[in-house]
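Good morning C.,

I know you're traveling, so I'll keep this short. The sequence:
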Amino acid sequence: MAICGYGRVSTAAQKLDLQRDALTKADCTKIYTDHGVSGAATDRPGWRKVLKALKSGDVLVVYSLSRATCSLADLTALLNELQGRGIGLQSLTEKIYTTIAMGRGMLNILGARNQMKRELTLERVNAKLAAARARGVKFGRSSTPSDTDRECALNLDLTVAQAAKRFGVSKRDV
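The C-alpha cells, ready to paste straight into the viewer:
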C-alpha cells in the first residue's frame, strides 16, 4: 500500500510549501505537484502522473478537495474512478477519508459547497467586469498607432510620451 500526495497552486506566484509540508507529515511516500495550473485545466501533468501511479489499496492524499477538483461533477467522477480501482482518497483540510461511509457522504457535501463557492466567485467577477464596461472601462491591449500616426508623430517632433498621449496608446506601443 502506497500513500501518494498531490498538491497544486493556481498561479506561478503561489508557493507549494504549505501543501508539501502537510503531505509529508501525512506520510506520503511520493508527492506529485502542479505549479501555476488552474484546477479547471484539463492538462495537469502532476495530476495525470499521480493517477497513473496509484494501484489498488493505495491512498491519494490531497491538502484540500479544491486542489484535486473544481466541480461536483469532477469530484463525483474522481470518486467513482478511485473506488472502481480500489483506491482511497484522503483530504487533510476537510479531514475526510473515503474508506468509510461517513467520509464518502461528507465528501459529497463539501464538493457541492466548493462548486457553489467557485460559481459565486465567477458571478461576482462577471458582475464587476460588466459594471466596469458600463462605466466605459476598456479591457485588453490598447490599439497600436498606424504607420500614418507614427509618421505624423515624427513630423510633429513629439516625444514618445507625448505621442502616446496624443494617440491614446501606451509608450511601449509608440
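Safe travels,
E.
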